Amino acid sequence: MSTSQAPKTYQEYSIEDFDKFDCLKLSKRFYIVLLFVLRGYLVWLMSVTNMKDRVGTMQWIYPETNLFFLSLISGVIGLFVVLIISLRRPDAPKWIQQLWPYCRTLLVGALIFDFIINLIGFFYWQLSSIPWLVCQGAIVFALIILCFTSKRLQINLSEFPQTLPEK
């Protein structure tokens, strides 16, 4: 990015929008997509922590157990992105630095993979209904659009934390 473009890129952000490495804090859209991709694991955690009815929460969100397990499979990519985020710091391994700009691609791939798994679940095992599948498709489509329309997310992916000189 040229120096004349840099001030225009960041002019709409305040000091609170930056982290301790002078990188723009991660976009809320990034976290929304990540939560959707990881929803199977979130449901699993909610059901494990519910001491009264461990299976009830899971069955309420995933009436078919196979859909839950398929959601866990598709969430593996999201767990990998969480690993990349957690290791994103100045002294990060080289592979983290190389993979960081591709996190949006990984998340979009996870969304598409999740939808394909739901399509397979519908056509092969009849695990869900047409309205559920259409709703899921609409959500996936909207989240993919969010990934590509967020200027903040684009900036996030172009930055990587660097060690700042002490003042």
From TrEMBL:
<dbReference type="InterPro" id="IPR021318">
    <property type="entry name" value="DUF2919"/>
</dbReference>
<feature type="transmembrane region" description="Helical">
    <location>
        <begin position="99"/>
        <end position="124"/>
    </location>
</feature>
<feature type="transmembrane region" description="Helical">
    <location>
        <begin position="130"/>
        <end position="148"/>
    </location>
</feature>
<feature type="transmembrane region" description="Helical">
    <location>
        <begin position="30"/>
        <end position="47"/>
    </location>
</feature>
<feature type="transmembrane region" description="Helical">
    <location>
        <begin position="67"/>
        <end position="87"/>
    </location>
</feature>
<keyword id="KW-1133">Transmembrane helix</keyword>
<dbReference type="Pfam" id="PF11143">
    <property type="entry name" value="DUF2919"/>
</dbReference>
<protein>
    <recommendedName>
        <fullName>DUF2919 domain-containing protein</fullName>
    </recommendedName>
</protein>
<keyword id="KW-0812">Transmembrane</keyword>
<keyword id="KW-0472">Membrane</keyword>
